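User: My instructor asked us to take a sequence, write out its structure as tokens, and then describe one feature of it. I'm not sure where to start. Here is the sequence I was given:
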Amino acid sequence: MQFNWHAVPDRERRRMKNDFAPIRSPTMAGGLFAISREYFEYLGSYDPGMDIWGGENLEMSFRIWMCGGTLEIIPCSHVGHIFRKRSPYKWLSGVNVVKKNSVRLAEVWMDDYKHYYYDRFNHDLGDYGDVSGRRELRKRLKCKSFDWYIKEIYPDLFIPGHALASGEVRNKAQRMCLDSSVDSGAMNKPVKMWQCHNQGGNQYWMLSKHGEIRRDEGCMDFTGQGTVQMFTCHGMKGNQLWKYTEENQLMHINSNKCMELSSDGQHILMKYCDSNNDRQVWYWKKKKQKPA
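Assistant: Let's start with the prediction itself. The structure tokens for your sequence are:
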């Protein structure tokens, strides 16, 4: 769960009176923002149970919108920020601070949507501390539901619950799974294979109702030559349009080829579809049942 930059959606552009009008944003980066001290304290300031860094920007973003506020980007503002050469914090060994903080915000603000996030790491929440005080804050401020936030503030967000299949994608011939990061460093690079570990992470994928194999903003993309790469999801189908067939194959519609595990189990090949080839058979961890 992380912040990312996106182009201003059409619905927001229609609301803006000019190009330099304030832009309503579902979330903020967190390092640079302006807020009155009185309002900051009224909203509950920072969650004192969070550690060091990570997740606090999303927690505050959800809280602002759900509790009656507005979060805006001001195009004509000027802010200076100096990055340190090294982290000034003493990180706790053996503790995933960002995960702990993110679980705290999910427990307090995301309602049933939190389970989509927990699916990413098999619901292994770890010790995230006591959140009863933050839940009481939400109740006292009479905040809206996270479902309201999704529908009214961020309707463009891809909802994992709408996916046709999700989880690890395991090959029949060998105990190998599709594995790749989707951060900026992974874009335009081949999707890799790795031994299935059942821990989610880089092996957690979703098959969207639009035919994308994706995680967050990264989609599997095949140009018709070479191998499958990660690319930013563009929503225009084309090279990112896949079909999970009745024979459990991952077929690329444009090229009419199917994903195949290489003989050494280390790479993805794109070959003409053969339902008798076990290296072209893939199993999703979760798959929606078709209506009878």
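For the description part of your assignment, you could build on this observation: DSSP finds seven helices and 14 strands in the chain. Try explaining in your own words what that tells you about the chain.
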